[in-house]
Amino acid sequence: QVQLVESGGGLAQPGGSLRLSCAAFGFTRDYYAIAWFRQAPGKEREGVSCISTIDGTTTAAGSVKGRFTISRDKAKNTVYLQMDRLEIEDTGIYYCAVDHTGRCAAPYDNWGQGTQVTVSS
Fold first, then answer.
1. What φ, ψ does residue 90 adopt, rounded to 5°?
2. Which pairing describes strands 10-12 and 18-25: parallel, antiparallel, or unpaired?
3. Contact of 2 with 26, CB cutoff 8 Å
4. What is each CA distance from 51 to 44, 56, 106, 119, in whole angstroms?
5. Tens digits of per-residue pLDDT, 17-51?
6. CA neighbor of 33 nearest in space, from 70, 86, 75, 83
7. Tell me, what DSSP letter sits at residue 90?
8. How many CB atoms lie within 10 A of CB 92?
9. CA 52, CA 60: separation in Å to the nearest integer?
């Protein structure tokens, strides 16, 4: 069974950086996509970024373009989200999830437990 485990959240100051990790276990196929989502207090969950293992294609929400970078270490079955120039609005719980078609499209499955990111001065 596929399982995703997030780590790397914490407290950062505005303008600072954090790197999140999403370790994947139990995949039986080569092609899939892993996406990062976030949910701020009182707000709906939103997609942040996604990477496909088919061709390495990535997507990013407009609010994080130029600040967040998604990448993948194939050998470690881990996807990273490098978050630079953090803003207070980036605060929330960050989750990773799988798109088993590899297209970075809904539906997403096998959600991780989430990791808290707090940006505050």
1. -85, -5
2. unpaired
3. yes
4. 22, 6, 13, 24
5. 999 999 999 988 778 999 999 999 999 999 999 99
6. 70
7. G
8. 21
9. 12
